[in-house]
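FAQ

Q: What does a record look like?
A: Structure on top, sequence underneath. For example:
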């Protein structure tokens, strides 16, 4: 089982990034998948998740209206489009797949700074 995040980096406040999470080793389309993040000195927190078929999404209040989660089951890949990024969005972003058991990626760093 593998979840591999990509797309992180350094961006100025107000900028955008698109994260990707490529999955392998399990039936991706049968898992609820989502994004979490962990800032330095803080606990890992929920960001967004999306249902099996991509028709239901949930967001934390802190990112609602700025971030969009999506998935492409034909490519076994999930995405997180992040707009209007702010310094408080700085964190390591992790993708997660859940179906009773949890799978995690290794994380990708997002830094929002001028």
């Amino acid at each position: 089982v593998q979840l591999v995040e990509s797309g992180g980096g350094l961006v100025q406040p107000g900028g955008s990034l698109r994260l990707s999470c490529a999955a392998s080793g399990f039936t991706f389309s049968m898992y609820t998948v989502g994004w979490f993040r962990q800032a330095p000195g803080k606990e890992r927190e929920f960001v967004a998740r999306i249902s099996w078929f991509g028709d239901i999404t949930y967001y934390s209040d802190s990112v609602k209206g700025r971030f969009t989660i999506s998935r492409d089951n034909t490519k076994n890949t999930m995405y997180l489009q992040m707009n209007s990024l702010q310094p408080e969005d700085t964190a390591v972003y992790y993708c997660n797949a859940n179906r009773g058991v949890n799978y995690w990626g290794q994380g990708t760093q997002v830094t929002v700074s001028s």
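Q: Is there anything notable about this one?
A: The chain is about 0% helix and 55% strand.
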